[in-house]
Specification:
CATH architecture: 3-Layer(aba) Sandwich
CATH class: Alpha Beta
Number of strands: 7
Number of domains: 1
CATH superfamily: HAD superfamily/HAD-like
Radius of gyration: 16 Å
Oligomer: single chain
CATH topology: Rossmann fold
Mean pLDDT: 96
Structural class: alpha/beta
Strand order of the largest sheet: 4-3-2-1-5-6-7
Shape: globular
Length: 211
Amino acid sequence: MGKKLIVFDFDSTLMDGETIDFLAQPLGIEDEISKITEEAMQGRVDFFESLTKRVSLLKGLQEERMIEICQNLPFMPGAKECIKELKNKGFTVIVFSGGFKPATSHARGILNYDADFSNTLHVKKGILTGKVGGEMMFDDSKGIMLQTIQRVLNISPNQTVAVGDGANDRSMFKYADFKVAFCAKPILKKEANIIIDEKDLTLVVEKLKGL
């Protein structure tokens, strides 16, 4: 197959949970935020509107606490082993996340993927302002970025695997011949050709045998 690319979602795919739900806990608003997250992942609300609304609720959280939480998130079982094996097989491993840079960049140092693209929480005087910006703000952001990566690496859809769990992963499925729905919402499963319902990322490697 030559050069190969695999792109993982982060929240609820490589990481067991949603970063923003963990950030909501110190503020006591995890139930409110998780409900909005669920609506977005099911594809019932626009991702950009959902993201900006949820981040606005984090206003006032200390930056130091945010970083601490982002650096102590639980990884999905098999995450490290999965990425190591994929890299041994010659894959370039990239992470796209509608979540946040302090989480995805820290995880890169542990899980050893090649690059991460995510969003940045705006901070002023050590406090979150409730504003967000970045590379993964919209429903179609992952698909747009995947096309960019494919052009840079000169990799085609038939050399590309996309792994995700929610509605905003649909846009990258369009440009990957191998579409993996991992413990995913029904809206994503409909567009997948590989479905894994067990929380074990080593099963991704199993399903890609022969690539």
